[in-house]
Amino acid sequence: MAEKPEDLNLPLTVVTRIVKEALPSGVSISKEARTGLAKAASVFVLYVTSAATNIVKNKKRKALTGQDVIDAMKDIEFDRFVEPLGEALEHYKTMASARKSASMKKKDEQEDAEVIEDD
Amino acid sequence: MSEEECHEDVDISDITEHSESYLENEHLKFALTEATEADNNKLEFELNSEEQVHEKKQKTEVIRSTKLPIARIKNIMKMDPDVNIVSSDAVFLVTKATEMFLETIVKETYAFTSSNKRKVISKKDLELVIDKVDCLCFLEGAMDF
């Protein structure tokens, strides 16, 4: 498989941080193992994407959505991720709509501020 | 053989538990992010209210809701020729799932490492885990580098 390093690899430092937090203190990981984990993560992304894309194709849709990703988890035997991902999706949607209303609010405040300055 | 089964048993409850607490922390991070998005733009106005000064400080404390870079994950996803449009929540969830996956696989691997009374996880341990755990079979050959 022809690989372009920047394209396929995830940053080693971030991967290391994630795995270290999941381990008890005093445990370390060899450099090769860290590289292996980063590679495994990339392969996982491709694997999930492929499974989710299949779902989208079968439903004759075109856009890959968050729900498709969650459904794909069941197909790839990662059922235990379904619930946490469902919660994450809810949080993400809440945050997205909060951001929207915050930027709209800020827009109003901008207009108010301009009015004050004019006076 | 029984050792093999033992490792698979360790796997499930361990991981689910951790994933749940991980997400509880994420909830707090989301709340922080919310506040700072709003005042990103307030910085220009300099109305100098105490509130704004406080919010500016919050901006520097913001923790991302994902650790892995979303843009990089999106690039990897786009390498699949069948992928057309990907919604932002899909990329976000794949990023989250990948983080959870990393936690899962490293804990699984550590079980092997510690059963051999070692404290350094090696590539060999990873290879063993990929071989033994069913749901990791898609990684076969990935460690050939």
UniProtKB/TrEMBL annotation, chain A:
- Identify the GO cellular component terms for this protein: CHRAC; epsilon DNA polymerase complex
Give the keywords, sorted.
Nucleus
One of the Pfam families matching this protein, by short name: CBFD_NFYB_HMF
Q: Which InterPro entries match?
A: CBFA_NFYB_domain, DNA_Pol-Epsilon_Subunit, Histone-fold
The keyword Nucleus is annotated on this UniProt entry: yes
Return the annotated region ranges for Disordered.
Answer: 99-119
**Lineage: superkingdom:** Eukaryota
Q: Where in the cell is it found?
A: Nucleus
Signal peptide residues on this chain, from the entry's feature table: none
What the entry lists under PANTHER family is as follows: DNA POLYMERASE EPSILON SUBUNIT 3
Protein name in the entry: DNA polymerase epsilon subunit 3
**Species lineage, top-down?**
Eukaryota, Metazoa, Ecdysozoa, Arthropoda, Hexapoda
Automatic annotation (TrEMBL), chain B:
Xref: InterPro entries: CBFA_NFYB_domain, Histone-fold, Transcr_DNA_Rep_Reg
Pfam families xrefs: CBFD_NFYB_HMF
Does Cytoplasm count among this protein's keywords?
no
Protein's UniProt keywords contain Cytoplasm: no
**Which UniProt keywords are given for this protein, alphabetically ordered?**
Nucleus
Molecular-function GO terms, alphabetical? protein heterodimerization activity
Record-annotated membrane-spanning stretches:
none
Question: Which GO BP terms, alphabetically?
Answer: DNA-templated DNA replication
Cellular localisation: Nucleus
Domain Transcription factor CBF/NF-Y/archaeal histone intervals: 66-129
Q: What is this protein called?
A: Transcription factor CBF/NF-Y/archaeal histone domain-containing protein
Q: Which organism is it from?
A: Bombyx mori (Silk moth)
